[in-house]
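TEACHING EXERCISE
Course module: macromolecular assemblies
Task: Read the component lines below, then compare them to the predicted structure of the full complex.
Student: A.B.
Group: 4
Components provided:
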Amino acid sequence: MQELVLNQPVSTARSELVREAAQADARREFEERLAECGPLAYRVARGVLRNTADAEDVAQEALLRAYKGFERLRDRSRFRGWLVRISFRLALDRLRSAKRREQRDTLWSHPAHLPAPANAEDIAASNQFQSHLERALEELPEKLRLVLLLSAMDGYTIEEIAATVGVPIGTVKSRIFIARKKLAEKLRCHANSIKMR
Amino acid sequence: MPCEQYKNALVEAAAGSTTPSGELLAHLGECASCSAAFAQEQSLFAAVDSGLHAAANTEAPPSLLPRVRVALDEATAPRLRWVQPLVLASAGIALVFVVFLLARPHRSVQEEVAKQAPAIVPIPKVSAAKTNLETTNSSGSTQVAANHFSHFHAARNSTNLYAAASSNPEVLVPPDEREAFARLVAVLNRHSDVAAALMAKAPQKGVLVTADPLQIPDIEIKPLEGAETETSKGASEKQ
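Instructor-supplied answer key:
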């Protein structure tokens, strides 16, 4: 019993050291993925939120959450898909709360429907059609939206999307098809602006 | 307007980004409106794809990764961030408390003793011998002046302690008389004869005091010089 008591601090210190070493390893590995996956998280968030500042916040939060759960992730090859889902979910949450806030403000001040706030960068980068498109994208069901966003991203193949979302390839294809059709239906009335592009 | 029966087929073909085949292809060759509608659908889907590509591939701001790294650093060591100021603050409070505890009793006891209890002050030991008197008195007065604090502190605990520690005789001095007593001690230090007179044994009652007879030396009376001149002058005048 006495020996156990004497050995206890040593084992605690050792386990502490092991834990710290594991943390350092996880941090190093996460840092290696950060340069690649950071922009990915941002793009997913930006595709949902249509706002640079909000997307940056969401991407940061998503990366932090991913880091906190990184040690528990058994299959590290699934990190990209995992991060995409976290970022997408967080962006949706933020979008919903922003909509609620917008509705509340609108009810309070009774103004006409205001366009979504955009900074100068957004304004310069988009035109009227882009704005309609992104609004139409917002109205898509979540499952369709995520798949469509990922399919529009550079370097994402159908197989990778299927692995990321966790659905069969056929399902990904059909979702992309349906999503594009729905978008086109919503945007058909803005066909005049298409000619401008 | 496209033909109603080919309308859905046109949209499906454009959405699938496939080239129409079979019956639809033949119809498009014949029907100008359906051909125009198909071209419009194709441009619509192309615009959608282009817009999606633009929306999905925006450049991440350069501040993102540094921000994330800072957040990761904070998340890695959250305990240190909170604990360190907490430890410092509590250590500071503990230090202040200890200093307060160490300082307070002396001051308060000194005040309490000064207000309530009479102080024990060693009085100078005065003896008949002058040298002895001076040394003892000087040490006594030093004790009164410099060791005030320790005497009060000792008096709080036990008067016997101090009495045992010091061989000097002691007196209890009330607070309002302390200053006057200190002055007296100073006077005694300066005038040892006064101290000796004060400390001299008082004559006991009932005992006859024998006084030495007063010895008055013979007084030699010299004649005044003025009177002598006057006398001689008067005598010469008389003569």
